[in-house]
Amino acid sequence: MVKTNSIGLRACAALAAIAMMTTGAIGQAVPDEGTPGEAQLNLPDNPTIYGPSTIAMRKATAIINGEIITETDVAQRLALVITANGGRVPAEERERLRLQVLRNLIDETLQIQEAKANEITVPDEEVQQSYVRVARNFGRAPDDFAKYLRENGSSEASIKRQIRGEIAWSRLLRRRVEAGVSDAEVQAVIDRLNAAKGQAEYHIGEIYLSATSETAGEVFQNGRRIIEQIRAGGSFSAYARQFSEASTKSVGGDVGWIRAGQLPDALDTAMREMKIGQIAGPIEIPGGFSILYMVDQRQVLTADPRDALLSLRQISLPFAPGTTQAQASEKAAAFAAATAKIQGCGGATEIAKSVGAEVVDNSQIPVKNLPPQLQDMMLNLQVGQATPPFGSQEDGVRVLVLCGRDDPQVAEGPSFEKIKGDMEDQKVNRRAQIYLRDLRRDAVVDYR
Fold first, then answer.
1. Can you tell me the distance from the alpha carbon of 115 to that of 121, in angstroms, rounded to the nearest whole number?
2. Quick one: signal sequence residues (predicted)?
3. What letter would DSSP give residue 46?
């Protein structure tokens, strides 16, 4: 069912809503066809606006079915998002984020209210347990995390409210939303997996922005600004949670593993050309635009060479502060000449001493954990060989010597239970979108 630990920010990056092999569609919310009362809007081509054009959503506070969201609530949650992005958010971007945070708080309030109406409560002890996990994801003890939040304009209460809302909503969905998946459906997925053995598979993230013909230009520019912020160091997962309109929003836009041919043509073409760590878009698709992020790549039911575990010896030569470019180049050339003589890890230490370099050993390092520029290089090295020198004037120069490699085992694929659980999650997430849409329709919201 819906994951209860997908608690925003960096914590949500650890969770995935896997769409692997179950449908040909990406994560956009799927409308329920044939809903009673649905009809096409009859709008004039050139409407005249009567009255002030101020957008209500720009107001700082709102009352949702009698419950107040204050300006402080919005400011503290906005600070939480900005903190997750390392504080690197320009002033104009903060205003857009503030509007999105208000919308998210309205949805969160509706979810909490609906859970309460169904007599669902979340004990304080359970909220605290999740809060401790989030603090650890930030590398902090709970008390230090509370202080850290206050220093950055947020609060412990704000993040605990989000935690409580997500847990309550998850439990409500488990009670109210059925998502049965038959054994035959699961077996069909397993059969397709076996038939696709060796084919390329892609782990992607998505931010989906809906648009009409009238709003396409504005939405496209919004997507470009989101990409700029992510490329500048912002968290893809945090932006997906705030802006995406896909069912994968709650898990940071994580679509999971999919194969070529499962996406709309425009997305499929872009995906095939992307490298790990790249972002692409905004890509126009029916109904809006998508931003894709390439998390990883592999081959179906085939051992991934990048899962190999390496034993490495790092030889590094730091540059003293104030080293000029010419001096750095001269030292790097001497370092390269010395390390070119390395013949196995056994002699690497002596060569390092001869040039005043430092030696550090690392074992059981997965190839995929190395920087992308080094991965292919390491896969092509034989035991005892060293990489060419690499580094920078600030970090110095270094080489890696391959001391050993444990090759990965052939992949067996996900279990029957795992596939079934993922399929159920996908169905629940789609129906949850419809459930929340209905709550919005019935809500009484007063902007102040």
1. 7
2. 1-27
3. S
Residue 230 Cα to chain centre, angstroms:
11
**Is there a common fold for 183-303 and 305-406?**
yes
Backbone dihedral region of 315: left (phi > 0), alpha (psi from -120 to 50 degrees) or beta? beta
Burial of 310 per CB tally in 10 Å (0-12, 13-18, 19+): buried
- Tens of pLDDT, residue by residue over 75-102, are 888 888 787 766 667 777 777 788 888 8
**Domain residue ranges in the chain:** 9-15+24-32+55-179+422-447, 183-303, 305-406
User: What are the C-alpha distances in Å from 94 to residues 62, 91, 104, 217, 233?
Assistant: 19, 5, 15, 21, 15
Check residue 36 and give its pLDDT.
44
Are the C-beta atoms of 177 and 432 separated by less than 8 Å? yes
> What number of residues does the chain have?
448
- CA dihedral (335, 341, 347, 350) in degrees, to 10, reads -40
- Alpha-carbon distance of 111 to 162, in angstroms, equals 11
445 bridge partner residues: 64
Which of 239-253, 267-281, 332-346, 387-401 reaches the highest mean pLDDT? 267-281
User: Are the CB atoms for 138 and 10 separated by under 8 Å?
Assistant: yes
Does pTM surpass 0.70?
Answer: no
Whether 291 shows a pLDDT value over 90: the answer reads yes
